[in-house]
Amino acid sequence: MGDVKVYFCGSICGGRNDVPVYQKVVKKLRTYGTVLTEHVSSSELTDKGEDAVVAGARAIHDRDVEWLQESDVIVAEVTQPSLGVGYELGRAVAMKKRILCLFRPSSGRCLSAMIRGAEDGQMFVVRDYVEDDLDNILEEFFKSLKRT
Q1: What is the H or E stretch that residue 7 is in?
Q2: Which residue has better confidence, 107 or 49?
């Protein structure tokens, strides 16, 4: 597939508890291509969002939508509920992007039916996981891309 452009989604304002998991996911994603949204896994980024962007929320929105359009695939860690991630996934579906959502049942949370119910096994894949399974799940997903 050449250099795959990956858009990684994870909670920012919704809570930063899963940053260590995001870092593991992004590190693995880098082996498959370019991660356009590496900053989501940064431990510097707080739940206050990207303070450094002077132009504010509009600039972040527009930049991220551009990255979504540019991306080949979307990988979202959806354990920590996030309005932004939900919005990004909705936009990605409308753009007919391939999507992988990762959810950890061990969190004790319930995954939104709007995400779980979007699963079609092809364009929108939802995988429950434990951290030890991450490498295999990502490998399987990226292998499936090459078959289509």
Answers
A1: strand 4-9
A2: 107
Q: Which tokens sit at 81?
A: 């509920």
* Euclidean distance between CA atoms 103 and 129, whole angstroms: 6
At 13, the pLDDT band (50, 70, 90 cuts) reads: confident
pLDDT surpasses 70 at 53: no
Strand-by-strand arrangement of the 98-103 sheet: 33-35, 4-9, 73-77, 98-103, 124-128
Q: Can you tell me the distance from the alpha carbon of 86 to that of 12, in angstroms, rounded to the nearest whole number?
A: 12
Q: Is pTM, for the whole model, over 0.70?
A: yes
Rg (CA), the chain: 14
Task: Say what the pLDDT of residue 2 is.
Answer: 60
Read off the tokens for 8.
């990684």
**Cβ(88)–Cβ(75) under 8 Å?**
no
